[in-house]
Design brief:
The protein contains four helices and three strands, in the order αααβαββ. By secondary structure, the chain is α+β, with helices and mostly antiparallel strands. It has two domains: 37 residues, no CATH class; 88 residues, Ribosomal Protein S8, Chain: A, domain 1. Helix 1 crosses helix 2. The longest helix is centred in the middle third of the chain and has 30 residues. The mean pLDDT is 85.
Length: 127
């Protein structure tokens, strides 16, 4: 319980970037009033794996940005990627964030039947 409140307060202070007394009171109030959702250990494990993938995507994003600067990518393609089975809306959001975080890919649309429509840029294909 305390961990959830502290986590919500940290998110609040990161979003507002304000440590005034009034903002602290508002942050504590929001942290206490927001309902706490039930999480199963399996979903928590999936959430931690998704967060770890996002942390790993940071160097990949820098690498792709440098590649785009040094080597032009002139080809585009739209591909369909399958959503992993039994994903919660929060995990689907993290998947979309992970795909869109890197400069070469963007999720154009999430299809309710379990597919992401992904736009990718790639280098010119040699004949």
């Amino acid at each position: 319980m305390i961990a959830h409140i502290i986590f919500r307060l940290v998110i609040w202070f990161l979003l507002t970037a304000n440590l005034s007394v009034a903002n602290i009171i508002i942050g504590v109030s929001v942290a206490l009033l927001l309902p706490r959702g039930a999480t199963s250990p399996t979903r928590l494990k999936e959430l931690l794996q998704a967060i770890w993938k996002i942390v790993q995507a940071v160097p990949q994003a820098y690498s792709e940005a440098i590649q785009l600067i040094l080597q032009p990518h002139t080809q585009e393609e739209i591909v369909m990627e399958r959503v992993k089975a039994r994903r919660t809306p929060g995990l689907i959001f993290l998947d979309i964030f992970l795909i869109t975080f890197t400069p070469k890919t963007t999720v154009l649309k999430y299809h309710e039947d379990g597919w992401y429509e992904v736009h990718r840029v790639c280098r010119r294909k040699q004949p």
